Structure formats: structure tokens, C-alpha cells
Amino acid sequence: MAAAGGCCAALYSFLFEYDTPRIVLIKSRKVGLMNRLVQLAILAYVIGWVFVWEKGYQETDSVVSSVTTKVKGLAVTNTSALGLRVWDVADYVIPPQGENAVFVMTNLIITLNQTQGHCPEFPDKTTVCSSDKNCTEGFISTHSNGIQTGRCVVNKGHSKTCEIFGWCPVEDDENVPRPAFLQGAENFTLLVKNNIWYPKFSFTKRNILPTINKTYLQSCKYHPKTDPFCPIFRLRDMVDAAGQDFQEMAVEGGVMGLQINWDCDLDKPASRCVPKYSFRRIDNKDSSHTVSPGYNFRFAKYYQTPEGVETRTLIKAYGIRFDIMVFGKAGKFDIIPTMINIGSGLALFGVATVLCDVIVLYFMKKRYYYREKKYKYVEDYELGAGESYGSQAENQQCRDVR
């Protein structure tokens, strides 16, 4: 029965009693001013940073993007090896279609009329020989142009190198043409068509804005001040904007980044959601501290003679690869993030109370007096000690009542 009565009393206390923290009003100019300053700083942070700068009242989404490109321009060369020649898009854009990137050839080393046969290897420290003993039949290294036959033969000039079976004559890529072979590439233009989508808001747009018509598109060139929304970029202008010299970069090639930023506030009219372009060089431009500077690769064009002999023209292409990188974030008002940030801001006001409590209770001269007013000490009732209060006056009043 006693146990049942105790359970009922505990349940009664749980349902019908209320506990509240003690509130102590401290009349102190220093503490009061500090409390208000901390609260003001928290309020400025919540309003200024969270809601105004970071737009904490908005739901956000990341951009989904697709990019297509088109290069235009002609270059003319006149050399003893190739004669007078015009280079168009089909010659210097490799491959014709790329994914978010386009390569424009600006320099090249060309080896004409290669056929499968026997010829001297290109001379280096591993291929120079004095007799057949220095050559190993069937040997292939990482940098070989073919498989060695085991013979030591006379190369151009007076040196001897090991003979190989492969595409002959072998490529000589020791001397990169300076200045760049296609100097006129600086005036080529790049058309970038970029479509973006914010799936959370069902919002789509492209960088060819509704105000741009066909006539304007045929004549405009991007300029950050006078024409910031034209999607046609001259190659030299992009390299200059990155702080580089085009003709210097064209010799050994490099990698350029074209960045498109779509930061959109969808609480405002859609016409204000526009792209912002920026440019930077991505690869290391300091060739003196780079083992393999620039950007280059090889490709070949194959032919067949009337006699049925397969021939090819080998090209080592140097050029600039333009990587197109799209960034963006869109925001739109939503009640959920608004309420979450308001609640977080209100919770931060508790920091002012905690800070003031720490200073009052641990650093002020009258800290012991404030502690007596702040805390009410209760001893364990089961030990029979009863209750004790923070101040002697209150304890005396309890004893008088008893």
C-alpha cells in the first residue's frame, strides 16, 4: 500500500507541479552594457550576415549545365615544306566536338609521307651506336619510334644510330617552331552556347539572352565593360584577360579556363539572372620549372598511294585547350529555411546571458555575493538535512518557521 501511495504522489507531482529557473536582476552598468552590446552584435550578425548577405530566407539549388562550342577563323602559312596553305576550322580544331572543352592548334611539327619500312632511329643517348653490337634486335623502349633490327646505320650527318622497322622517316621534334606556326590564331573566335537548369525551381535559361538577335550575334565580340553578355570570345582577348601573352603561349600550348558563373536570385525578375564570365590559365606557365610544359599531342592523317602503299602525315600539335567550367547557385524564398534561421538567431541570444553569467560569477569583485543570489542550494532530503538557502538570512527565516 505504501509503495502504491508513493507512486501516486510521484505521478501527482509530475502532473501538477511546475519548476522554473530563478531569475536574478543585477543592477550593474558594466554588466548591463556588456549584455546589450553582445545582443546587438548577435542581432547584426543574424540580420546583416545570415539574412541580407547569405540570404538565409531562401531555399537554394545548384546549377545543371550543358555546353557546346564553335570556333571560327582562317590562318595562312607559306613554308618550304608545305608551300602556301590556308588553315580552317577542320584543320586546327581537334577533335571537332568536345565535352565542355575545345582544343585549338597554334603550333605543330609535321612529318610528311611516312611509310612502314626500315630507317635510322632518331639520335639520343640510347640509340647512338658505333657498331651492330650496340643494337639489340627486337628491342623496344618507351620512346622508340619502332623496333630495332640489330643493325647500326648512318643517320643524317656523320652520326650512326640503330636501325628500326616502323614509320619512316622518324619524327624530329627537337626544335619547336618559334614563333608559333599559326600566329593568326589569336584572331580566331569561340562561340560558347551554355544552357542551365535549376531543377528545384524548374528554371531554365541560356547565355544567349532573349535580347540577342541573329544580326547582333554575327558582329559582337565579348568585352567585360562594353559588351559583357556577348557569347563570342576572341582567343587573344581571353588569354590577355588571364594576364598571359598569346603568342608566347601559342608556341608550346597551354590550358585556359573559361568560367561561367550563374548566381541567380529568383525572387527578382528572371531577366536579372545573367552569366558572368572570367578567365584564368590553369596549367603551369613557367616552363623552366616544368618537365613537360604546355599542351601537345600527336595525330596522323592516313593516305594510300595508287600503288596501294599506305602512307601518313604525322602531326605533333601544340595548342591551347579551353576548358569551360560552369558554376552557379540559385535561391528563392521559402518559409522553412526562414524559420530555421530565425530560431537559430533567437537561440544565439542565450550566448549573451552565458557570457554575462561567467563574468559576474567568476571575474567581478562581488562574485561571491552574486553567487549567493544566483544559486539556491538544496541538500539531499533523504539524509535528513532539510533545505539550506544561499544566504544566512533566509536560513534563519526557515528556522523561525519551524
Automatic annotation (TrEMBL):
- Can you name this protein? P2X purinoceptor
A Pfam family per the record: P2X_receptor
What does the UniProt record say this protein does? ATP-gated nonselective transmembrane cation channel permeable to potassium, sodium and calcium. CTP, but not GTP or UTP, functions as a weak affinity agonist for P2RX4. Activated by extracellularly released ATP, it plays multiple role in immunity and central nervous system physiology. Could also function as an ATP-gated cation channel of lysosomal membranes. Receptor for ATP that acts as a ligand-gated ion channel.
Q: Where are the transmembrane segments?
A: 37-53, 342-364
Could you tell me which NCBIfam families the record lists for this protein?
P2X
The family database entries (InterPro entries) matched by this protein are listed as: P2X4_purnocptor, P2X_extracellular_dom_sf, P2X_purnocptor, P2X_receptor, P2X_RECEPTOR_CS
Fill in the subunit field for this protein.
Functional P2XRs are organized as homomeric and heteromeric trimers.
Indicate how the chain sits in the lipid bilayer.
Multi-pass membrane protein
Task: Say if the entry is tagged with keyword Acyltransferase.
Answer: no
Q: What subcellular compartments does it reside in?
A: Cell membrane; Lysosome membrane; Membrane
Q: Which family does it belong to?
A: Belongs to the P2X receptor family.
What gene does this protein come from?
A: P2RX4
The chemistry this enzyme catalyses reads: K(+)(in) = K(+)(out); Ca(2+)(in) = Ca(2+)(out); Na(+)(in) = Na(+)(out)
The answer to keyword Glycoprotein applying to this record is yes
Q: Which domain of life is it from?
A: Eukaryota
This protein's UniProt keywords: ATP-binding, Cell membrane, Disulfide bond, Glycoprotein, Ion channel, Ion transport, Ligand-gated ion channel, Lysosome, Membrane, Nucleotide-binding, Receptor, Transmembrane, Transmembrane helix, Transport
